[in-house]
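Consider the following input, taken from an annotated entry for ADP-ribosylation/crystallin J1 (Streptomyces luteireticuli).
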Amino acid sequence: MTGRRATTTLWRPTGPKELDLVRESGWRAWPPRLPEQPIFYPVLNEDYAVRIARDWNVLHDGAGFVTRFEVDSDFVARYPVQQAGGRTILELWVPAEELQEFNAHIVGRIQLVHEFR
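Applying the prediction step yields:
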């Protein structure tokens, strides 16, 4: 008997340029980091992602988006949860050089769940 593998739900607040690159991937992968972006940081709760997209991305990029996606739980367990502020401000810090491998462990497609302008 084969069961479904366990997944972890993550969210990613993003701006228009990054979202365009995700769309170009067929909603299957995050784009490589820019040189000034050594870490890819998905977040662990939707509320935190909404706050970043709405309050930061809109201000800096004119629009903010929240995506949701699933990652193989066994794989993602290698990244310890980072508390980046208050107790609900939780992120995973994925080194840029590991992003391609991280993308390979995304289960299904990245979904757009909120849009702010």
